[in-house]
Amino acid sequence: xRNIWKKIIIQTILDEKDxxxxxxxxxxFELAKGFRELKINIRRWVKDIxxxxxxxxxxxxxxxxxxxxNSFIDGGVTGISLLVNAVSGYPIYIFILLLNIPFVxxxxxxxxxxxxxxxxxxxxxLAVAVATIHFGEVTHDKLLASVFGGFFLGAGIGLSIRGGAxxxxxxxxxxxxxxxxxxxxxxxxxxxxxxxxxxxxxFLNIEAALYSLLTYxxxxxxxxxxxxxxxxxxxxxxxSSHNEEIRQMIINDLGRGVTVYKGRRGYGKSGETNETDxxxxxxxxxxxxxxxxxxxxxxxxxxxxxxxxxxxxxxxIKKRSLQH
Length: 324
Known about the structure:
The chain is globular. Strands 2-3-1-4 form a 4-stranded antiparallel beta sheet, with helices on one face. The protein has 2 domains: about 45-230, no CATH class; about 235-310, Alpha-Beta Plaits, CATH 3.30.70. A hairpin with a 4-residue loop joins strand 2 and strand 3. It has 11 helices and 4 strands, in the order αααααααααβαββαβ. Helices cover about 65% and strands about 10% of the residues. By secondary structure, the chain is α+β, with helices and mostly antiparallel strands.
């Protein structure tokens, strides 16, 4: 068994870094380090598979239970699939597969092979789930159907993205077009969705298009919520002559971790500079008001820069219990 694991570590981890070396040239330390990397990779793949599977189930439930029975659509490639299904009557899983093929290939070209493989598996899984699992219509209320259909679809897309794949090729298409046209990704997505909902108003009716817009808003907000997390974090950079007092306040009063790094200040007409410590911390938006108040008490002239943080990993992000 030990020799089997050794062979796996060498073939999957160590040989990729140095393919010229022989298997008997690796030290025990290198094998142990390779084993640790292998465990991390396995854990990551298992986590990704679970997230994608749950995402597929959630998206399929949103489609089958809410959107398809009421002929509502969403934005992006999924919305196009729903629209063509509502107009033609052909099964939606066919369009989910066919319409996403170009974007899987584009993802392979502009992002990575691993991303393209995961995306192809996720999209195929969604098509299979919609074709084989029939949840049945959950509600006849159009408002509930549009909101909760968008909620479950957005949650499914978000969970899949957290698993390293997409089940809707809109983002891939937006990245590709933004590079070609020199525009932002957000502008491309907005233009695509305006076209989709315009076609929905023409081929379906105005009421269905308006409910579909509500579905899109619910899906996009849920998608942001799933990707960015429950707590929205803010990175705060503080430059003050009382930096040590501010650092102690953040640690002892707020229970947050801080990073202190050296910087140089420039001021005056002659551009004089002097060294200073710069305090950086990450807090939730709910704690922002308290932090500003405490900084004002210590130094009302402190220079404070705040920026949105999409996600965090490691460090002391979760608030620790304060000891008094």
